[in-house]
Amino acid sequence: MPDAPNVHRFPLSAADVKDTNEAPTLAADAAGRVFLAWASKTGDRERTVFFTRTTDSGRMFDAPHTISKGGIYRSRSSENGKIVGYERRAVPHLATAADRLELSWSEAPADGSGITLRLATSADAGRTFAAPVSVPHLDGMRTTFTDMASGPNGALACCWLGDRNGAQQPYAAVRPAGATAFETEQVVYLGQNGKGVCPCCPTAVGFAPDGTLYVAYRNVNDGYRDIAIGRLRPGQTAFEGPFSVVSNTWKFDGCPHDGPSLVVIGDDIHVTWMDARNGPQRAYHARAKCADMIFSARELNPAGPGTQGNARLFKDAAGGLHVVWEESLGAESTADEHSGHRHAPVVPKPGAGGGRAIQYATMAPGATAFGQPRAVAPRAGAFQTRPALVTTSDGSVFVAWNELDESGKVVVVTRLARGVNP
Known about the structure:
Region (Disordered): 332-351
InterPro entries: Sialidase_sf
Oligomer: single chain
Largest sheet: 4 strands, antiparallel
Protein name: Putative signal peptide protein
Organism: Fimbriiglobus ruber
């Protein structure tokens, strides 16, 4: 259980209560400072990105300050002969690259006419940020369901789903080490018959130690919505793949809004994700050698009785692997009970019994399985969702998540108490 004095809560707006897609993000630097960012719908046509940090191991966080205020973009698509629209979120991402702190998010202009990936850089550990710039792409395509990661010597990569070809397809762009600008973006995979991938699941990006770039996404192949990966080796001009993490496992006509997470440790690539192959939504972990990309997979917590999702990975400096995910505390409906095409998870009802709690587990360097998972800070009747985590140079573990209860919705961040690691 976390130390109570190290639990910090930042209020969200009433408009955020029904949102199931925004997620907080964490990063840490070599000095042990921890950075937290999140987004909130602060007006009918306004979305705001907030940032805070701690310089004292989580005892205190700065008062949040505003990084960006943007409009709200609504995508348009045809369903059952009707034109429908869906709000796209900011979903910020933090990363430390060399001696800089990078913060990216998706931003719409005030008129909501589009959405693009923005990047702000801090050279003073988050005290100030330079004016944000757009991550460039050739034709102004809309960038959604993004991710960002730093790589060797300060390289930076961003990935997203873009609709340039009339379907949501994964793209990636790299800012090489020492450079100030991104190289031209590359498509990761056009999709089966060029028809794109799962259009509303977040993507994930990560570097190997040799600079190879990996991008994970939820593919669509003959109706199966399983995780696949694209690979770009140094010097290559096009992505290889797709490499299937699992094949023809979950057939589902819907958009679960629950994407993969990936990290590379040495010669191994690790991936987590959710699928509902057996009815209930469950979280899985798979690993493969980078040389062959042949994955073996298992459930993260097969003993857990509830539904699971939104698993996120983090590797520490020693080569250990950390994972967080959300898990229900009571009975919940399964994916199949909401069959038919849909574009969002079911909005939870706090105080109605049950709830969801963030779970945490670790895999020691050289181990082949995660240890016994533990709930981080469960609260009966509260719904804890969309977790993030980071470790610091002294081995501290910080976890953040969204939490909804009868009093409203907040972003929570905590430093795990010493000795709770499985």
